[in-house]
Structure formats: structure tokens, C-alpha cells
Amino acid sequence: MQAIARELRVNERIRAREVLVIGVTGERLGVMTLPQALELARENDLDLVEVAPTAVPPVCRLLDYGKFKYEQAKKERESRKGQHASVLREIRMRPKIDAHDLQMKARNAEKFLKSGDKVKFTVMFRGREMVHPEIGREILDRVSEQLKDISVVEKPPNMEGRFLSTILAPGHTRPAKEAAPAGQEQKSAQA
After folding, report:
1. In the chain, is it the N or the C terminus that has fewer CB atoms within a 10 Å radius of its CB?
2. Do 73 and 14 reside in the same domain of the chain?
3. Which band of pLDDT confidence, cut at 50, 70 and 90, is reported for residue 2?
């Protein structure tokens, strides 16, 4: 919003000698010299705002600049409300992780996935553990199996140096979708 406000020239800051003036309701008032256009703006208690500086002649609009800036800021705030920045959360573990510890990590991942974040599971290998990457794959398969109802595998298990990792993205819960059509069928059978 601030970048837009800085780019627009208003009233005396407009440098062009002649400008194409657009009225408040969007009607074209024609090409005028800058002093004529500024006088017209003052008579109507409005501002002359250069909206298309690269056009020949530059296009200027008659409007209340304070109100215009407020509306732009309001639109930007509303557009930001609907956005949720997806964050990549990483959960690290070792090949010798205990079953209960793995369940706890899966529960944490479930919270992240439900809040809309992606989760990267990483199995870290040390020393001779590198000889058995299948253990890490088995762990990652178990985790993705546990979370299959609420997630989709975005990136399958992949070995990167001493790390074996996979990425799970939030997915729609399948059982809820299946239950809704079944409920609709029951309602139609009763009718």
C-alpha cells in the first residue's frame, strides 16, 4: 500500500504540462493544461492524482486522495486476512527412535498439519547407521501411514547426505467427506 502511495503524484507534484483528466464518476473530461486541471480539482474540493504517468498525455483522476489511500489500505488488509502463510515445520529423529517417541512426534506433526503447515520429517544417520537406510525409510513410512487421513505426501522419502527426509502437506480429511454423502443418501431414503 505504501509503495502505491509513494508512486502516485498528487496535485503540485505532477510534472506534466498537459494531462488527460478523468472525473469522479469515471467520465473523461478531456486534455487540459496542468493549471486548469488543478483549478478544477480545487473548485470541487478534490485532489488531482496522476494514475497513469507513462501515458501520453499522463492520465490524472479527480478524487479525494485521503479517502483513496484509506480504501487501498482497507482492501490490502482484507486480502491479507484470507492468506495463511504455509510454514515448513521440521521434525528430526534418529533411526533408533522408540515407538512411543515416534507416536509423540506424529501427534505434534498432526497439530502442525491441522493448522495448515507442511511438515518435513528427517531421519538423521550417524556413523555406521548409514549402512541401513531402509530403517529410516520404514520409520518415515510408518509416520506417513499414521498421518494419511490428514495429509498427503508431497515429497517421498529421499536421501540427502546423512539425512533421509520426506515432506507431508495438509490434506483434506477423507472420512468426513465420505460420511457427508452417506448422510445425504439416508435423508433422501427417508423422504
Report:
1. C
2. yes
3. very low
